[in-house]
């Protein structure tokens, strides 16, 4: 997995989010769960030996009851922290790749500093999640239209 691959994934995310002609900021709202899982499955399909985990933040951005999901990808002892809906917090962010780290613990620490709140691993994705791809795509479109 490299920067070109991640840029292609980012472009796929933008295409889905912009399908309803809303800004990335508006389209990203309330879609972090589905988009993070969708991106995790895309990456798993292309790189079946990686590990993909969803990290959940609670009370992010110092907002009570504001939760957020991001994706941690482990490939060859390198961790990629990806926020596929980063625009809901940072309108002008150019990249969904937040950082690379050497451990999951470092990823959690980074998330707590970057987004505030309390972060933990909420689930691990695997090929059984592929069956949910169409549902997540549908949910994203529904959320955008609301």
Describe this structure in words.
- This protein is an alpha+beta fold and 146 residues long.
- The protein has one domain.
- It has five helices and five strands.
- A five-stranded antiparallel sheet has the order 4-3-2-1-5, sandwiched between helices.
- A hairpin with a 2-residue loop joins β2 and β3.
- The protein is globular, with a radius of gyration of 14 Å.
- It starts with a helix and ends with a helix.
Number of strands: 5
Number of helices: 5
Biggest β-sheet strands, sense, barrel: 5 strands, antiparallel
Share of β-strand residues: 15-25%
Rg, rounded, reads 14 Å
Enumerate the spans where pLDDT stays under 50 for 5 or more consecutive residues: none
What is the mean predicted local confidence, pLDDT?
94
The structural domain count equals 1
Nutshell version of this structure?
The model has no long low-confidence stretch (mean pLDDT 94). With 146 residues, the protein is of the alpha+beta class.
Task: Explain the layout of strands and helices.
Blueprint: H1 3-17, H2 24-28, H3 32-46, E1 51-58, E2 68-75, E3 78-82, E4 97-101, H4 104-115, E5 118-125, H5 133-145
Antiparallel strand pairs: 1-2, 1-5, 2-3, 3-4
Helix pairs in contact: 3-5
Which tags fit this structure?
alpha+beta; five-stranded antiparallel sheet; 23% strand; 146 residues
